[in-house]
C-alpha cells in the first residue's frame, strides 16, 4: 500500500523535529521541538487509527466512534502538556476536525470526510517545521 501524502508530511515533521532537538541551543526552541515531536507522533497515530476505522466502518461502524474517542483523549493530553501557543492552536484545530467527523457519524455518515482532520494534522506539521 502506498503511503498517503499526509502520512509522509507527518513523518517529515517528526523527523525534522527530532533532528532539531539535537541542534537547537535555546530552551524555548528545544521545548517547542520536543512538543512538536510528541504531538506529530500522536497525531500521525491518531490519523492512522481514524483512516483504518473509516475504511472498515462497513464491518464495524462503532470503530469510528472508538477512534474518535481515542483521538480526543490524546488531544486532551497533548493540550495539557504544551505551552506553545501555535502548537496549542493547531491541536485545537485538530479537535475541531474530530468534532466535525463525529457530527457526521452521529448524523448517519458511515464514511465521513476526514479531510478536516488530515488538514489540521498537516497544519501541525507546518508548526513543527522551522
What is this entry, summarized?
This protein is mainly α and 130 residues long. It has helices at 5-23, 27-55, 62-81, 85-106, 115-127. Helix content is 79%, strand content 0%.
Secondary-structure element order, as H and E? Answer: HHHHH
Number of domains: 1
How large a portion of the residues is in β-strands, by DSSP E? under 5%
Determine Rg (CA atoms, Å). 15 Å
Task: Tell me the number of helical segments per DSSP (H or I, 4 or more residues long).
Answer: 5
**What about the largest sheet?**
none
Q: Specify the CATH architecture.
A: Up-down Bundle
Shape: elongated
Q: Can you tell me the CATH class? A: Mainly Alpha
Cα(first) to Cα(last) distance is 30 Å
Which blocks of ≥5 consecutive residues have pLDDT under 50? 19-26
Number of strands: 0
Decide which structural class fits the backbone.
mainly alpha
Helix content: over 70%
Q: Mean pLDDT, nearest integer? A: 74
- CATH fold annotation: Four Helix Bundle (Hemerythrin (Met), subunit A)
Keywords: Signal
Organism: Streptomyces gulbargensis
Protein name: Secreted protein
Question: What are its keywords?
Answer:
130 residues, mainly alpha, Four Helix Bundle (Hemerythrin (Met), subunit A), single chain, elongated, 5 helices
SSE topology:
Layout: H1 5-23, H2 27-55, H3 62-81, H4 85-106, H5 115-127
Helix pairs in contact: 1-2, 1-5, 2-3, 2-5, 3-4, 4-5
Signal peptide: 1-25
Protein name: Secreted protein
Keywords: Signal
